[in-house]
Amino acid sequence: MTDIFTTPRSEPHGETHGKFLVAALYHFARFPRFSDFREPLQAVCDENGVKGTLLLAHEGINGTIAGTDAGIAAVLSFLRAQPEFGALEHKESRASSMPFLRMKVRLKKEIVTMGVEDIDPNKIVGTYVDPKDWNALISDPETIVIDTRNDYETAIGIFKGAVDPNTKTFREFPDWVHNNTGLHNKPKIAMYCTGGIRCEKATAFMKEQGFDEVYHLKGGILKYLEEVPQEESLWEGACFVFDDRVSVTHGLEEGEHTLCHACRQPLTKADLASPHHEDGVSCIHCHEVRTDEDRERYRQRQRQIELAKKRGERHLGS
């Protein structure tokens, strides 16, 4: 899910850039009281009309939330008032409509699930690289560039020349590393993800596996798309985000992708033109693996979604 970020901008955002403020955040910290913190955090979010998902674990916090500027500011102030999260950073973008249905504060074993015990980014981690310096690093022939995201994310965008592990989940990443001995063929490993959190664990893991020069993009793809001019960019495509915007592009503008509500894969305009696409029922990615019973069940759900839309409501299955 979300990742390392800059502090809030001091100037107000105009309505032309989106009515809702979206804040993506994470922070690794020793947080043994995470279970007791769930209800107070949920209450603050609800009181301020903020929606999204925040994950709490013994290792810290991770998530993305959206709301009014004032609502987001209130939640961030509450978080930074906690001794564990005083140094918490976040990344801002805008959305033209509320990108979340509800507010969920969940308790987890890990705030980003790798499934490898004793990986602690507070103890060991790769070298951060600012977006302005990223192009030079990944253009160096002595560097292997690795995208640590999952296959449905890399399908719509990737850095030029990057290696795509084609993982279904982040849990598969350690095995992918073990099975690719060629990663030792070059001295430098450069890694990136959406906003930074997966790379915190991925670079820590790589360092523990004996890789020496391990780097990661500070602030992730989102920070790069915000700061690096499009004419200088080595990013190709759009960046998948975990909310109703589906994707963002340079300048963190909302992308043109939609989501298949049957398989959750991002869809391009060309995908929507496929004869296998049916709103809420199937798409080019999942048509062949769904049964007729599946499709009929999805059609019933889609009819309920459309009825709710006509009433001016939002169906929970949408």
TrEMBL record:
The keyword tRNA processing applies. Keywords: Oxidoreductase, tRNA processing. It is an enzyme of class 1 (oxidoreductase). It catalyses: uridine(34) in tRNA + AH2 + O2 = 5-hydroxyuridine(34) in tRNA + A + H2O. SUPFAM superfamilies: Rhodanese/Cell cycle control phosphatase. Transmembrane segments: none annotated. InterPro entries: Rhodanese-like_dom (IPR001763), Rhodanese-like_dom_sf (IPR036873), TrhO (IPR020936), TRHO_N (IPR040503). It holds the Pfam family Rhodanese. Residues 139-233 form the Rhodanese domain. Its EC number is 1.14.-.-. The keyword DNA repair does not apply. Catalyzes oxygen-dependent 5-hydroxyuridine (ho5U) modification at position 34 in tRNAs. Belongs to the TrhO family. PANTHER family: RHODANESE-LIKE DOMAIN-CONTAINING PROTEIN 7-RELATED, THIOSULFATE SULFURTRANSFERASE/RHODANESE-LIKE DOMAIN-CONTAINING PROTEIN 2. This is tRNA uridine(34) hydroxylase. It comes from Ensifer adhaerens. The lineage of its organism: Bacteria, Pseudomonadati, Pseudomonadota, Alphaproteobacteria, Hyphomicrobiales.
